[in-house]
User: Fold these one by one.
Assistant:
Number 1:
Amino acid sequence: MNQISDEGYITADGRKIGAVMMEMKNITLRFGGVKAITDISFDIRQGEIRAIIGPNGAGKSSMLNVISGFYIPQEGEVWFHGKKRAPMRPFQVAQQGIARTFQNIALFEGMSVLDNVMTGRLTHMKSGMLSQAIWKGKAEREEVANREVVEKVIDFLEIQAIRKTPVARLPYGLKKRVELARALAAEPKLLLLDEPMAGMNVEEKEDMSRFILDVNDEFGTTIALIEHDMGVVMDLSDRVVVMDYGKKIGDGTPDEVRNNQNVIDAYLGVAHD
Amino acid sequence: MFYRESGDFKTSYVEDNQTFPIKFDRYRYYFVLLVAFLLVPVLINDYWVNAVFMPFLIYAIAAIGLNILVGYCGQVSLGTGGFMAVGAYACYKLMTAFPEVSIFIHVLLAGGITAFVGVMFGLPSLRIKGFYLAVATLAAQFFLVWLFNRVPWFYNYSASGQISAPERTVFGVPVTGASTDAWASYMFCLVFVTISAILARNLTRGSVGRKWMAIRDMDIAAEIIGVDPLRAKLSAFAVSSFFIGVSGALFFAVYLGAVEVGEAFGITKSFLVLFMVIIGGLGSIFGSFAGAAFLVLLPVLLKNVLVGMLGWPTDLAAHLEFMIVGALIITFLIAEPHGLAQLWRVAKEKLRLWPFPH
């Protein structure tokens, strides 16, 4: 990797990474007396795949929840596209173009796959209640236009065959994929993935890794992900933040992190020959 | 054999999005509309209208309204009777204050006023969920009935405390009051039912409906994809109360003609409509009709069988009717907790493969 400048850097595989998109500045998050996150700063750059790793309870998910607006940190600032973000509710964060998936699947079980993915388009659908009640005209045109975007995502993630299946009937791996589809349908600028490969077998992990790389490649989506499978993390990500007990103990390219003594002590461990 | 989607290709998303994607369903729908609008009005008499068609149609509107709130948005409400009363009294006040305006407009305005009241009582839903919300809406039920009983302005200071609908006409034909023909009141309600069903269907299949269903299925995930829970819940309360208000206005003005609030719009009404929605099927427009039909028709049917065919004394039949209806409700819910709409869906799915299910 080249030196990181303000404009960005070139990755090992030759992708161009842009300027800083999101910057977390000295974030501290407390629940009563418990400090979940202590004074953490890091940035996410345009077009980057950024991983957050660390042992259980390190505060990774809390960090993602701070980004997506579920938690308001007591101290610190969140900067997005060069502007300081005022404390806001999750739906406002979504309207800014940040989508996410959850560690435990959070799909709408009562709806079909298509409807679930269509909900991802809600931030793009503006027609009023009255025009929807009448349907013919504006609402129908909007529905069709958004359906076209959704169908592209469905094609992309290869879930055409289950389009009309109720989500409750799907197996786990497919549900994960549908959840990714819902997040992608929003055409987010920043995509947050909370353990996208948890509980998957090797084939499913390979599929999911391919999708993540393709999303980044084809749509230029910036991705921040939490993952425990170190092989996957080191292969996919451009830069890695390592957390332990709410503190940042490492930050850099996969190679730098792998050789960082703090990270080895806290998380990676050493191979015994 | 005739019920197939094969060969019926869709080449646009508009075609794929239609309400009845299978040809047979589409024709059946048009057929039902034709019969309801052209054939039934010619054939029916007073008994059929008053015992079967009017309560069925009016309750169907109320059930559609409640289904939007409970079935689509997942907010339990026990205030239906109270909101129907708001529709009825709003309609009454409008009818007496502006006699020259069309009753059609009055009914719609009554719905609008109920929508506003519904939003007011929907505000607690932002903080409380489930059973607790049900109890909060129960407060609406009791408060509204008390209000219409105690404030004479609402019943224009009449001595009896009742409200009664003056005669109003549509295109010169009376639809309210004593001299109304059976077919006229039937048609008047049918128009409202048809429009309500179409509007409800359009709302629930579009982005508003998806917002409601997202809130119902998982409110945290709904928020993360950009749904403002405040607006989604309150819009469900508004739309739901609008339909319930319309049904209350029709119930008073067209069906009963004269109303005493505690009797017509008491807590039993709230439960009746809620049962219709649950038995019919939560989250289904068809289910609203099926539930209303089940609970309106079943007692009439039982009465006709027990008294008319078996010759039992009327009072005995009336008591047994309660028990049988109750038992049937339980049986149905055990057999199919998702209601008649689900039975209908399963039947259709089976029919698509018939006669070669493998």
Number 2:
Amino acid sequence: MISDFINAHLADIQNIIFVSLLFAMWRWGGGPERGLAIVFGSTIVAPSLVFQTLSNDIHDLGAFSLFFGLADAAALIGIFLVALNANRTYPLLIAAFQVVAFSSHLVKGSVDQVSPGAHLVLAAVPGFCQVALLFVGLSLHRFRLSRFGSYRDWRFGHDFHRLAAMLSARA
Amino acid sequence: MTCGAGRRLTDRQRAVMERIDRRVPIKVIAQELGVSETRINQHIRALKDLYDAGNLGDLVENYRAVHRDSRVELLPSGSRDPLPFMAPVLSQPVGPASSAAQPSRTFLLGEAWARDETGSILFGDARPFVSSDHQAEPDEPQLVPKLLDGEHAVPFRLIAILSISACILATVILSVNAAVVLSDVVEDNTALSARDWTAPVQTAATADCYRACGRAR
């Protein structure tokens, strides 16, 4: 019975877990964690909600492919901004997965022989890996805070002092 | 926020707190004080209760807020102030004179400045002066390689990201190809073994029959 319930509401459960993770990152994370929460919330959660509001039919995904491609492009820019300036390692891995996901959109748009299933796998599977990396990164951040106290959120020599200060400011 | 200002620290608690303020790792604190890390963690828990802190960062903040207003002895009157531009913020003189020969007064000197008994300035917190220094604090954990930290880290980080994504794509392609090849091999083996199972016992009559069937095909 529990497995039937989970199977029936798998998408909703995944959304709840993901939104809870984003909230935890905003509440208990440092500057890079909050930056990634903003990027993921605005480029992944918001487009999904828009799609579910306008058309909840899986067959209409193709019509929204350009919209999701642009959302992935915006996510790529935001994740790169964090990954190139954060004093963390896991944003580099998240950025690498985003490159894989975004490149699948580029290949699908330029090559006709790509099957929709392959495109869907390459575009969607990196998201699961990114969610796992977000959870691991937040956990390691809390562990380091408890062990060493506060430490730098951003690398030396970055040029986004005001934005970094806003993201790193305590709630 | 109650900062535990009215509570006294034991010598050991004070020693631990001062080292935490300087971002010394717990392991090093334990080594310096000659006790176990478990004991240090117990002291830290007690300090968190005293200063109403939930984590080490809050503990340091609350500790500094309590000890920010350093009350120190001024130089005896008549002695030359080595730093005349340091205009102290005067407060009401507090406390009795330390001795009859040298009546002393205490003044608030501001947040980051304090003086010891000889009048030399003590840097209570040098953090504002090292914010532009591109060197990590010695006690700070190193999270990224030094090549990926600093002013010229962007190209190296880009190379790292692209290399990792290439490895991911290569892994996916290799895995898919391996799965396809393995499935072909398994299917061939299954077909071969099925043929062996259905082959009947060979007799002369059946051999003639097979030859005839084979010729007909």
